[in-house]
Design brief:
The complex is a heterotrimer of chains A (409), B (151) and C (228). Chain A has 409 residues and is an all-alpha fold. Chain A has helices spanning 2-18, 21-34, 39-63, 67-110, 114-130, 134-145, 150-158, 162-171, 180-194, 197-209, 217-245, 256-302, 316-334, 339-364, 368-371, 378-405. In chain A, 80% of the residues lie in helices and 0% in strands. Chain A starts with a helix and ends with a helix. Chain B has helices at residues 2-24, 31-60, 66-88, 97-123, 129-150. In chain B, helix 2 (31-60) runs parallel beside helix 4 and helix 4 (97-123) runs antiparallel to helix 5. Chain B is flat. In chain B, 34% of the residues are buried. By secondary structure, chain C is α+β, with helices and mostly antiparallel strands. Chain C has helices spanning 16-20, 58-65, 67-75, 124-127, 182-191; strands at residues 7-8, 14-15, 24-26, 32-35, 38-43, 49-56, 87-90, 94-97, 101-103, 121-123, 131-134, 137-150, 154-163, 196-199, 203-206, 211-214, 219-220. The radius of gyration of chain C is 18 Å and the shape is globular. The chains are: A mainly alpha (409), B mainly alpha (151), C alpha+beta (228).
Chain lengths: 409, 151, 228
C-alpha cells in the first residue's frame, strides 16, 4: 500500500513537474498561430524525454552516477568542460525564465508589477535551496502543478471540432499564411520545450541522492512512462485551448496572461484562479529544479559535494554556486528584459545543448561496466539511435532557423 | 594538431569579423523591407487590439478576475507601444509616403483606443465595455485591410 | 584479501583512462571528495610502472584542460610553495573501484599534497596522448593504458593501447563485443580499426617529450575482448 502510494505520488508529481514556463508559453504561442499542426513535435519530444530520462534514471539507479559524472567520464575534461559551459548556460537561461514566470504569474494575481516581485521570488527560491527544504516542498509543488489539468477541462468544455484538430495534427496542416521555415522553427522550439536538459539532470541527480537501486527501476519507469506522457497531454491541451479561442481572433501570445484567456472563456473566474495557481506552482517548482541543476552540473564536473538534502556547510562550493546564480538571475530580470523573450530563447537553446548530454548517456546505458545486465534492449537502442539523429538535426537547425525567421516573427 | 588549431582560429576570427562588418553596413530603405516590417507591425497591433477586445468581452461576462483583466490590458498596451515604435521610427522609402501616413494614423488610433480600454477596465466602468469592444473590433478589421493593401 | 589490495575493478585488468580516470571519489561514508583528475605512476627499481596514487584538484585537472590556464593558476599565488602541487590519495586508501572510487577512510585529511619533486613519479596523462613510433615509424598515440594487479607489486602497467583519436575515445567498445547501439559501435570500431596493443616491456617512454618508442611484436586491438 505504501509502495503504491509512493508510485502514485511519483507519477502525479511527474505530471505536474513536466510543464514549466517554456511549455506554457511555447505551447500557447504555437496553438494560437498554428493550431495543432505542430502537435507531432510535442509527441516526438515527449517520447524523446521518456527515452532520455529512463536511460539516465536507469544508469543512476544501477551505478549511482548522475548525468555530469558520466559526461566527464566518457568525454574527458576538455570536451566535458565545453559541454558543461553549454548545458549550464542553457539551464541558467531557463532558471531566469522560470523566476520571471513566477513573477509574471504573481503579477496576474496581485496586479503588482512583476519587476517588484522578482527580488522576493529569487529570495524565496534561494531560501528553500539554502535551508535544504526544497526536497520537502517538492512534492507539494508537483501536486499543485496538477491544477494545470484545468486546461484539459477547459478544452473539453470549449467543445472544439475534435476531428479538425486531429486532422491538423496528423497531416501537419499549417495555416496558409505561415511558411514552413516558421513552422520548423516552432517545431524545434516545442521539441526543446519538451526535452529540456535540466529535467534529466534533476531527475537522475535526485535518483542518486535518494539512493535508488535496481529494485527501484519499476517505480522509476512508471514515473517516466506514465507521468511524462500525461504531462505532454497537458501541453497539447494548452495548445488546443489557444487554437480554439485565440487563433480565430488572430491573437498572438506574447504574455503569460493571454495563455490563461481561453480558460476564462471556458470556465470563468474559478478556472482562471486554478490556472494561475498552476502557473505559480509549476514555474516555482521548475525554478528550484533549474537552480539546483546548475549547481549539480558544476559540482558533478569537479567532483565536489552536491545535493538537495545536504546542508550548506557540507557542500560549500555547491551552495556558493546557487547563491551566485540566484543573484545573477534576479539581476538579469531587473534589467527589464522580457521574461517571455528569455523563455523563447531558452527552449531553442535547450534543443541546441541536448546532444551534448544525450550522447554520453546513450553510450553508458549500453555499458555493462555501469549498468550490468540492465543494458539497453534492442528496441531502446533502435529508438535511441533514431533520436540521436533527430536531436543532432534539431540542434544543428535551431540557430539558423532562429536567425532566418527572426525568432518566429 | 597545430595546423588544425590555427585553421580553426583563423576561421573563427574571420567569421566574427565578417559578422561585425555586415552589421556595420548601413541598411538602405528598400520598399520590400519597409512593407514587410510595416505589415508585421500591423499584425502585432491587430493581435493586441483583439486581445483587449477579448478581455473586455470576458470581463463584461464576469469570466475574468478584475486584476488579471487589468494586467492583461496593461501588458497589451505595452506590447502595442513596442510594435508602434518599431514602425514610426522607420524612414519610409520614397513613393510610400501616403501609405506610411495611413499606417501611422491607424497605429495611433490603436494606441489611443487600447489606452481608453485600459482606463475603462481599471476604473471598472462596465457600461462602456460593449461600445469599446465594438470599436476595437472595427479597428482590427481596418488593420487587416491595411495589411492586405501592403501585399 | 590483504588490506592493501583494493577491490572491485582494481582487482583485475583495467584500462586506466576508461575505468579509473575522471571517476568520482567518495569517502567511507559516501561523502564526495573529488574526481580522479590524474593518476600517479611510480617507476620502481626493477623498471615496473606501478599505479601508486590518485591525483586530485586544480593542479591535476588544469594541465589537462589547458597548459596556459594552469600557468595562470600557479601565477595567481606565487608565494605558495605548493601552488602547483596536486592533492594525492595513496592507493592503499582505496577500498574499491566500481562506477566510482570508494575510500577506506573519511574524507578529512585523506588527500595531502603530493611530494613535489620526486623523479620516480610520473602522471598517467603524461603517457596518454603521447606520440608513438613503432620501430622508428610514427604510428598514432597512446589512447589507453592497461594495468593489472601483480602479487607483491600492486597494480602494474602492463600494456599500451595505441591508435588514432583522443584518450578514452574507444568509449568502452573495445571491451565488449556486443555493446550497442550498433551504429555507434560500428563507427567507433571503424575509427579504431588500425589500433594496436603493445607490451609495456617493449616501450621506451620519453616523459618530458611526450613520446613513446616501441619495438618487437604487437597485436591488433580488434582481437581483444573482455567477454571472450
Amino acid at each position: 500500500m505504501k509502495r503504491l502510494f509512493a508510485v502514485a505520488l511519483g507519477i502525479l508529481t511527474a505530471i505536474g513537474g513536466f510543464v514549466d514556463i517554456g511549455d506554457l508559453v511555447t505551447n500557447a504561442q504555437v496553438g494560437a498561430r498554428f493550431g495543432w499542426s505542430i502537435a507531432p513535435a510535442v509527441v516526438v519530444g515527449v517520447v524523446g524525454i521518456c527515452l532520455f530520462a529512463e536511460m539516465s534514471g536507469r544508469v543512476a539507479a544501477v551505478s549511482g552516477r548522475a548525468t555530469f559524472d558520466l559526461v566527464r567520464e566518457r568525454l574527458g575534461p576538455r570536451v566535458g568542460l565545453l559541454n558543461l559551459v553549454g548545458s549550464m548556460g542553457v539551464t541558467f537561461l531557463t532558471f531566469i525564465a522560470e523566476i520571471g514566470g513566477v513573477a509574471l504569474s504573481l503579477q496576474l494575481v496581485s496586479s503588482v508589477s512583476y519587476l517588484l516581485v522578482v527580488p522576493f521570488v529569487a529570495l524565496a527560491v534561494w531560501l528553500l535551496l539554502w535551508r535544504a527544504k526544497f526536497s520537502a516542498i517538492e512534492n507539494v509543488l508537483g501536486l499543485l502543478g496538477l491544477s494545470l489539468i484545468v486546461f484539459a477541462v477547459a478544452l473539453w468544455q470549449l467543445g472544439p471540432d475534435w476531428g479538425a484538430l486531429a486532422h491538423q495534427a496528423v497531416t501537419a496542416d499549417k495555416p496558409a499564411g505561415e511558411d514552413w521555415t516558421t513552422w520548423a522553427y516552432y517545431a524545434v522550439a516545442l521539441f526543446g520545450a519538451a526535452m529540456t536538459p535540466y529535467e534529466v539532470f534533476f531527475f537522475s541527480s535526485g535518483g542518486v541522492e535518494e539512493r535508488w537501486t535496481a529494485k527501484d527501476l519499476a517505480t522509476m519507469r512508471a514515473n517516466v512512462y506514465i507521468g511524462f506522457p500525461l504531462g505532454g497531454l497537458l501541453s497539447l491541451a494548452i495548445a488546443g485551448c489557444a487554437a480554439v479561442v485565440l487563433q480565430p481572433h488572430g491573437i498572438m501570445v506574447d504574455t503569460l496572461g493571454e495563455t490563461a484567456l481561453p480558460v476564462a472563456e471556458a470556465l470563468g473566474k474559478v478556472g482562471v484562479a486554478i490556472a494561475v495557481l498552476g502557473f505559480v506552482a509549476a514555474t516555482f517548482g521548475a525554478a528550484c529544479e533549474t537552480g539546483l541543476s546548475v549547481g549539480y552540473s558544476l559540482a558533478q564536473y569537479v567532483g565536489a559535494q552536491w545535493g538537495k538534502y545536504v546542508r550548506p556547510q557540507a557542500a560549500v562550493a555547491f551552495h556558493t554556486v546557487l547563491v551566485l546564480c540566484t543573484l545573477a538571475a534576479a539581476a538579469v530580470l531587473l534589467t527589464g528584459i522580457d521574461p517571455i523573450a528569455v523563455t523563447e530563447a531558452s527552449v531553442v537553446f535547450s534543443a541546441v545543448a541536448l546532444p551534448l548530454t544525450y550522447f554520453p548517456i546513450l553510450v553508458i546505458a549500453n555499458d555493462p561496466d555501469y549498468v550490468g545486465e540492465h543494458v539497453n534492449g534492442r528496441i531502446t537502442n533502435t529508438l535511441g539511435t533514431v533520436y540521436l539523429v533527430l536531436i543532432v538535426l534539431a540542434a544543428v537547425a535551431a540557430i539558423p532557423l532562429m536567425v532566418v525567421t527572426g525568432m518566429g516573427r | 594538431m597545430e595546423p588544425m588549431r590555427t585553421m580553426l582560429r583563423t576561421a573563427a576570427v574571420s567569421g566574427v569579423l565578417a559578422l561585425a562588418l555586415t552589421g556595420c553596413v548601413p541598411s538602405e530603405p528598400s520598399v520590400a523591407d519597409w512593407r514587410s516590417s510595416t505589415s508585421q507591425a500591423l499584425e502585432d497591433t491587430a493581435s493586441e487590439v483583439e486581445s483587449v477586445a477579448l478581455v473586455l468581452y470576458l470581463q463584461s461576462h464576469d469570466r475574468l478576475p478584475g486584476r488579471a483583466a487589468r494586467v492583461a490590458a496593461v501588458e497589451s498596451e505595452e506590447s502595442l507601444a513596442t510594435a508602434v515604435e518599431g514602425v514610426t521610427t522607420q524612414q519610409p522609402p520614397p513613393g510610400e509616403a501616403r501609405e506610411d501616413r495611413e499606417v501611422g494614423e491607424l497605429l495611433s488610433r490603436a494606441s489611443d483606443l487600447v489606452r481608453e480600454a485600459r482606463i475603462a477596465l481599471t476604473a471598472g466602468d462596465e457600461s462602456s465595455y460593449a461600445e469599446l469592444r465594438n470599436r476595437l473590433l472595427d479597428l482590427s478589421d481596418d488593420l487587416d485591410t491595411a495589411r492586405e493593401g501592403l501585399r | 584479501m590483504s588490506p592493501a589490495t583494493p577491490g572491485g575493478r582494481l582487482g583485475r585488468e583495467l584500462d586506466l583512462a576508461l575505468h579509473l580516470l575522471d571517476r568520482q571519489v567518495e569517502d567511507a561514508e559516501g561523502a564526495l571528495v573529488g574526481k580522479v583528475d590524474d593518476v600517479e605512476l611510480t617507476r620502481s627499481e626493477d623498471g615496473r610502472l606501478v599505479v601508486s596514487g590518485l591525483l586530485l584538484g586544480a593542479n591535476a585537472l588544469l594541465p589537462r584542460i589547458s597548459r596556459r590556464a594552469h600557468e595562470l593558476w600557479v601565477a595567481s599565488a606565487p608565494q605558495r610553495p605548493g601552488q602547483h602541487v596536486p592533492d594525492r590519495i595513496d592507493l592503499s586508501l582505496v577500498d574499491r573501484l566500481d562506477s566510482g572510487v570508494r575510500l577506506r577512510t573519511r574524507r578529512a585529511g585523506a588527500a595531502p599534497p603530493a611530494p613535489a619533486l620526486d623523479p620516480d613519479r610520473a602522471r598517467l596523462t603524461g603517457l596518454l596522448g603521447a606520440r608513438v613510433s613503432h620501430e622508428g615509424e610514427r604510428d598514432g598515440r597512446v589512447i589507453d593504458v592497461r594495468a593489472r594487479p601483480e602479487v607483491d607489486h600492486g597494480l602494474v602497467v602492463s600494456e599500451l593501447v595505441v591508435g588514432r583519436g583522443g584518450a578514452g575515445s574507444l568509449l568502452g567498445y573495445d571491451r565488449n563485443r556486443d555493446m550497442g547501439p550498433w551504429a555507434i559501435a560500428a563507427l567507433v570500431r571503424r575509427l579504431h580499426r588500425g589500433s594496436w596493443v603493445v607490451d609495456i616491456g617493449q616501450c621506451a617512454v620519453d616523459w618530458t617529450g611526450g613520446a613513446v618508442a616501441t619495438r618487437g611484436p604487437r597485436r591488433p586491438l580488434s582481437g581483444d575482448h573482455e567477454d571472450d
